[in-house]
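Input sequence (146 aa), recorded before submission:
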Amino acid sequence: MEQILASLVEVFIAVWGLLIAVLGFVAPWTPLIAWLAYWLFAVNWTKMWPVMARGGWIGVFLLGLVMALVWGVVAPPTGGAHFILGLTVQNFTGKFVYVTALFLMAMFCGFVQLSGSCGSWASFPEEPAADEHHHDDAHHAHAAAH
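Predicted structure, token format:
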């Protein structure tokens, strides 16, 4: 019995060490994982895509531009340059590349969701149209008046 208890303690210690190692590997990637999870599971791309097609992409582009400019001023890289894929690029160019990559990942999440690959994980219940609510309220008000 004592040997089984010692073995269980060793297994617990090994699992705990594995958990710490995995968390140590995943922790630096947590913001990117959260970004991808948000755009994949929390955004209704069925409604967002027509808005983007009607010109919403202009607002997204301007938002990205402002993000890159503010990020470049607030957090310049050490040494004044970024090293991206073996290239040395200046601060604002590097920030624009990073923001563009984030937006492309968000768009890719939209494509994955629109393809139906998420299944029920990214299903959004249908909301009644605004006209239906207004019509029902007017109908009830009219019925209450008579």
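Checked by second reader. The longest strand covers residues 81-84.
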